[in-house]
Design brief:
Number of strands: 10
Shape: elongated
Radius of gyration: 24 Å
Distance between the termini: 56 Å
Number of helices: 17
Helix content: 40-55%
Oligomer: single chain
Order of helices and strands: HEEHEEEEEHHHEHHHHHHHEEHHHHH
Largest sheet: 4 strands, mixed
Length: 373
């Protein structure tokens, strides 16, 4: 038996959530709680928040939902009453989609039609301080320090930036989102330097592995270098990179992707390490020209050169890292260890990057260059 939800005309999740707020939640709050200050939006995890949802996304954890941000004093006193009101008064559908959710045994939610209340809705209640503490391990009551930026993975910052805030009478959520829109200038330079360093560390290895007949090893390193170049492109575009499922999709939306993707195709299709190395160097040269156009440092050589006396051509990406570090003025950022970058430049483990409670212990790594014992 086919799922009736999957037969409905597809609506992008953020548009559905905005209609849910505008046509259903806001009128009810205005009628039943006319003096309540609040903010409402769709922020946090979810493919819909990034605008990457497709018809397939509707099979779980998707639908008309939002977060209602209340003042701290109203959370305990008003949230239960609002929840009870919404369960009884929400319309049963919005834009043809049910507002009622069931729950799978694995813990995921799924939309279900119902013909009567109560509605098991997906309106979450919190405060701005609690939301950013729980989602980013961020204390919004104190100014952000340089290390605070480095401990927040871009995949989470992306969802805060690209989600939608439908309404904000409180102002806190708007203020934090504005602050988190992108990195401060010197933190940005530090991250750019860290990404150039990542490239520099393996530049000669595509050729070296190929030279000893290890074609698989050469291809693996080339793929990793493409990933590093893509991460560098996100930074140069001043965009946050999402997690792996939507990394390529988001990259394809960057203006530079039209120029870089054909070069990456040449990397994949290369039959020899020499042609693979050449395509990687062309892509690196493209980003080097961009670095010089930004005038982030004094102009630097863009052409590749020999790796010492060995028969491998590389871009010597470390020169860009060194020049960027020299441009950093903020004492906090200048004191950071060179070569590290951010937490998600160092680590791609989901169990770290998707668990905010695991971020704080890494602070000592950036302070000393060594993990806490």
């Amino acid at each position: 038996m086919s799922d009736p939800i999957m037969q409905l005309p597809f609506v992008k999740g953020l548009d559905l959530c905005q209609a849910f707020f505008t046509e259903a939640v806001r009128p009810l709050l205005s009628h039943h709680f006319p003096h309540l200050p609040y903010a409402a939006g769709r922020l946090g995890g979810g493919s819909d928040v990034l605008g990457c949802d497709t018809p397939q996304s509707r099979d779980h954890d998707w639908g008309p939902r939002l977060t209602l941000f209340l003042a701290e004093e109203d959370l305990a006193s008003q949230a239960p009453a609002i929840d009870a009101m919404l369960r009884q008064a929400l319309p049963l559908t919005i834009l043809g989609y049910p507002t009622h959710y069931g729950r799978h045994p694995d813990g995921t939610t799924h939309l279900e039609f119902t013909d009567q209340p109560p509605v098991n809705h997906q309106v979450e209640f919190t405060t701005a301080a609690r939301f950013f503490r729980d989602y980013l391990a961020l204390d919004i009551s104190r100014p952000m320090q340089a290390v605070d930026w480095l401990l927040r993975p871009s995949q989470l910052l992306a969802t805060v930036r690209h989600g939608r805030l439908f309404h904000d009478q409180i102002g806190e959520v708007t203020a934090v989102r504005q602050q988190l829109h992108f990195y401060p200038h010197d933190v940005w330079l530090y991250l750019l330097a860290g990404q150039w360093t990542r490239l520099a560390q393996e530049e000669p290895f595509v050729g070296r592995t190929g030279d000893v007949g290890d074609d698989l090893g050469s291809r693996l390193i080339a793929a990793r270098q493409v990933y590093n170049l893509m991460r560098l492109a996100f930074l140069l575009e001043k965009a946050y990179a999402p997690y792996s499922k939507w990394f390529g999709t988001a990259f394809a939306r960057l203006p530079c992707a039209a120029d870089l993707r054909p070069l990456f195709d040449q990397v994949w299709q290369a039959a020899s390490w020499q042609s693979r190395e050449q395509a990687l160097n062309q892509a690196t040269r493209y980003l080097a020209r961009w670095h010089n156009r930004w005038q982030l440092t004094e102009p630097l050589p863009e052409a590749e050169r020999w790796f010492y006396e060995r028969p491998y051509r590389i871009s010597h990406a470390d020169q860009y890292a060194d020049a960027l570090y020299d441009q950093i003025q903020d004492p906090q950022v200048r004191a950071l260890p060179r070569g590290l970058g951010s937490l998600d430049q160092l680590c791609d483990a989901t169990d770290v990057l998707a668990n905010p409670q695991r971020f704080p212990p890494f602070a000592d790594l950036f302070a000393t260059g060594k993990p806490k014992a």
